[in-house]
Amino acid sequence: MSHGRIRTRWERLDERFAPIGGDRFVEVLFEDGRWLEGPAYSPLWRSVLFSDIPNDRVMRWDETTGVVGVWRSPAGYANGRIVDRQGRVVHCHHGSRSVSRVEPDGSVTTLADAYEGRRLNSPNDLVERADGSVWFTDPSYGIHSDYEGHQGESETDGCHVYRVDADGSVSRVADDFAQPNGLAFSADERELYVVDSERNHVRRFDVAGEGALSGGEVLVTADTGGYDGVRVDDAGRLWLAGHDGLHCVHPDGTLLGKLLLPEVCSNLTFGGAQGNVLFVTATTLLLSIRVTCRGASYPG
Fold first, then answer.
1. Nearest by Cα to 50 from 91, 102, 94, 105
2. Strand 285-290 relative to strand 25-30, pairing
């Protein structure tokens, strides 16, 4: 059940954005959130899971019926999530300051809640690599107050990026961020893009075969507000959640164009049967639009 439509507004800033198009209207799938985040599409369930963080609940939009319902509440103030290559849901939690995985039988496995004996801050967003490792960011937003988690003290020496290997070991892979947020691999997984929301830019790292990072140069800086979530399409372009909509950035760092939206965007994902539907969380709204590109890692 759709809650309405918004006329699609594309802003072309570079001729290379010309092939991008899609529906004439953006569909409003849900409009009753407080601060929505972390959309993830499940091909098996034909559903999108997304977080309403301050209300401490995970919502589920059903593609076949259009119905939105509560999937889990309380939810540990869940934020970002993925559906991994085995179809399991992996969440970041502000409340428990952890990364967890929901197994097929419904049980929950904690993948990470500490590094070198110290509690994490508030894991925010995550991505899976083909080797089964899970990479996540750990800013401090969830411990600033009780709005999106539980007010608390940081036990780490900053806000970093971590990797959980298939054997359960946790490694710190980058430690020079102010507030690391969204992250995404290039299609060949040789590069990792990480948003620093406090510094309003996106950095690009080279990924070695064993998972070590090098480089880390700034690829693009937000021209309006800051960036939050990021995904990569089948042409290698970055799609970034910004204050005025989604920004599409060429791998060379050029801002190609925008999908202008009425509320501040937090995150996005590609989904649908062909991987060419953008699902966007934008403050109180869950939005969707079918576009002329596909997600790079779809199906996962």
1. 91
2. antiparallel
CATH homologous superfamily, domain 5-290: TolB, C-terminal domain (2.120.10.30)
Q: Tokens 């319902």 sit at which residue?
A: 69
Segment 68-88 shows an average pLDDT of 97
E runs forming strands in 198-266:
201-207, 213-221, 230-232, 238-242, 245-249, 255-260
Residue 129 CA to residue 198 CA, distance in Å, equals 26
Domain range summary for the chain, segments of one domain joined by +: 5-290
Residue identified by tokens 């501040």 is 264
> Is residue 159 within 8 Å of 174, Cβ to Cβ?
no
Whole-number Å distance between alpha carbons of 93 and 115: 15
Cα–Cα distance measured from residue 71 to residue 83, given in angstroms and rounded to the nearest whole number: 15
pTM above threshold 0.70: yes
CA dihedral for 250, 21, 276, 49, sign (positive or negative) = positive
Q: Which amino acid is at 254?
A: T
Which of 297, 299, 252 is CA-nearest to residue 274?
299
Q: Is the pLDDT of residue 300 over 50?
A: no
